[in-house]
Amino acid sequence: MRLFDQFVIREQEVFACRVVNYLLQRSPEIRAGLIEAINHQVPDLWLINDHHFSCTPERSTGTPSPEISTGRVDVFIEIDNAVIAIEAKLSAALGADQPAKYLQTLSRATEQLAMLRGRDVASVFVLLMPEGRRGEAEAALASGVKIAGIRSAVLTWEDLFQAWREAKITDGVTLFILDELEHLVLTQIGRRKDFHRLVPALRIPLAQAAHDAHAEFVGWLYPAFRGERPDLATRLHAGRNRSQRTYLGRYFALGQVDGCWGWYGFVDPAHAGDPAAREPVFVMGIDVEVPDLGDTFERITFSHPGFNENATWWRIRFDKTWDQLTRWQKALQPVREAIASASRAS
Known about the structure:
Blueprint: H1 12-26, H2 28-41, E1 53-60, E2 72-79, E3 82-88, H3 100-117, E4 122-129, H4 134-143, E5 150-156, H5 157-166, H6 172-189, H7 195-201, H8 213-225, E6 236-237, E7 247-251, E8 262-267, E9 281-286, E10 297-300, E11 312-316, H9 325-331, H10 333-345
Parallel strand pairs: 3-4, 4-5
Antiparallel strand pairs: 1-2, 2-3, 6-7, 7-8, 8-9, 9-11, 10-11
């Protein structure tokens, strides 16, 4: 039994980064392992954390440029001779203005720290990505905005966990949490190993479900739907009482299109035109026109007083083979392309 598997984690990346921050503050071996792993990716600079290490989670990135949105650096570190900004990704896409908004914040913080200490301080920006997205990360750094003096590097989650496994960690709590974090992150990156057990629980009517399998599935799938504005997509919808529950799902962001709307989740079959059925129906509603999505997505007539009746609704059919987020992301690619097209036209 895994500790983190007992919780419904809405934002895997946010949760994972908060655990990383906790471990960095708790364990000197974890700190040393991270710095060593970054040093392997930045060969012309040797980072040192012998005397000073501070770690700030989710540091705000206010920017003076109207073309670049604000955001939050996942992990922001100050050490003896450098300031390090880490942007971590699991399955979510890199935004169009990433990493530009982080570089400006990093540059300003480095200048301030150098003035405070009275000596040169290096700037390092790190994209922490799954190994399978290394090429995407390297391309983003190569084609993105450059700021003089900032070194950029790609570090994979797999390499980071390897560095931590090789560290001489003696604290039992740190070892336990690290093991749980590695399991969580690698599960989110790749195949969900317990998917074959989760799917049957999704067939139970929402009003009769004895546990939160539906909410767990919806939360796990969120990175495949998530757009570039997660601030628009944070609510989980469910009935106040289980006996009254007729739907459960999440809104997801539709780029920069004002007034556009998207939602996915489970609904009572009566709302999807199948009142005789008992099994909840997995659906997606969207205000943007999209082409045919293939056999997995079936256009349906949907009616529910709580939702936009003018949206286009799809029933999504899946089985136990849909246990990887990458498969969902591939199937939803036409939706993301339609959202991007609508954003450019707005």
